[in-house]
């Protein structure tokens, strides 16, 4: 099955990291660990990865980075008081499954 | 032919690649691709929710345009019901003298003709003239019929064509303000068709027996032109003979359609579907760029729903921007646009309460004087040079009633809210503000600020914490939030009372907000997990637009910008210093075919 997305690691430096034209051309999705998902086989996605000097990752490599970040966040959540955990605005960080 | 330089005062520049930041309308020559290029507004075509009819009905009829339409007749009884649409709401006005269904009509919402239709039993030839206030009986059609179509600019001139006598008819009649005169027939006899245009240039399309046949009227004769891509009956249409829209309808016994087709004077092209598939409904609109669909039959039955068509909606987008100096969530956000905002307070992990205030100028965030009371889950209102910071959590579980006012340099404590709370919604200015909802629990309290004191006013219908906020003190919107579950419920404040209006598409709490009660925006928020979804409010309903690049909850709280220029900053999951700028419009580069 042809993949839908490609993944890279790139640190968001702020202004110019994603500009309005890039954002309008393709859909970006960010994940913990500075993992970015952009469309695969897409000229504009490839150009953006080059612009931000993103390090390409396979889906499995990206998933491992995300898992490590999520597990750390879950451990931090588990260490909170019961009162903090009861806050409906403070749900336990959920596992994230990246798409192919 | 004039040269480009004579018109624009400059020659077309040549680039080896495209220019870095071309402005809208700029033309250049790309010598690498050997092609002339230009910067063009990026638009999309879409239906969005409008205000519901007061009386849901089918077999109804419409005239007018998207922002000034008329709906009359239909079933169930009473069949003479007439309503006027102002682009936001339908208002009941005086009924037809002869209640009927499957009538036809033409004109505007202040000057229209209703003709023919069915009463039980039989079809009628009766015609009535609408002057903006009342219907008056005028001369009858020569041929009684129902489910015909019509074209006409106002109640002084128009055309009625097709319909069921029975049998189906090809008869066309012309109205001169006083009498009906038979003119040349349609080429294809049919009923339940759609039509639009004026007495000298009309279009007829679709109908029963099921057809996609389209005919163009030149003031004298009907000429067959290209068919609809989807043959159907009981559809609606709007526009002119050269710029038209066909939407909805059915093939009997098999399917009810949401399909929309756009006519450019030569052919039909399928475009975005309606949200609700329907038949037996009313339509209005000026062209293939602006239409209205209302009422009809939508499974499982009669609907009052209205949808508005915009054939050229600007496409918005989020871009990353300079990061906050202090990463935090649950902070107050205040600002006029994507390049002028204030952030204050918030939660700095792990468990810290911030007093930091930062000012954004479109390029960078600068630390300015702190708020007096450090707190998180506070909300802001006003603009970046004159703001209020209200409510919040001072320490767990101590909520705050404190209000502080910002004069562009310093924060000063002023009179407290009547009750301590956090995660409130807020709108308005430093002299005329409004705060609603909040935590603990799911408060429905509303408080109004006059520049000196807070006064309790009428409650929200649905108590909630963390709603989205748009508007001003006398006209505000509360959207989403949390009670015992994440909410999509939206309420509109008219200065006195809250009224439920159309829901968000995405339930959420602690989202960012911008804009007014006629053009609002919400973005991000907690949905477990956080969402990146952005929705735009047009005064009637919410439409999903482009997502944030990074999903976040507990983002800036308060009105921060407008529906076309907003700012998202801070938030959590992950704890964030990220900022994104919203532009409600964008451009694309297109090539000019010079062959």
What descriptive keywords fit this protein?
heterodimer; A: 100 residues; alpha+beta; 4 strands; 40% helix; 16% strand; elongated; B: 595 residues; mainly beta; Neuraminidase; 3 domains; 4-stranded antiparallel β-sheet; 58 strands
Structural class of chain A: alpha+beta
Considering residues with a beta carbon less than 8 A from a beta carbon on another chain, report the largest interface and each chain's count. A-B, 29 and 40 residues
Q: Going across the biggest sheet of chain A, name each strand in turn.
A: 2-3-1-4
Measured by DSSP, the beta-strand proportion of chain A falls in: 15-25%
- Report the average pLDDT across residues of chain B: 94
The radius of gyration of chain B is 28 Å
The low-confidence parts of chain A are none
Q: Percent range for helical residues of chain B? A: under 10%
Rg of chain A from C-alpha positions?
16 Å
Shape of chain B: globular
Sketch the topology of chain A as an H/E string, one letter per element.
EHEEHEHH
Quantity of strands of chain B, as a count: 58
Helix segment tally of chain A: 4
Largest sheet geometry of chain A: 4 strands, antiparallel
Shape of chain A: elongated
Strand content of chain B: 35-45%
Q: What number of domains of chain B?
A: 3
CATH class of the largest domain in chain B: Mainly Beta
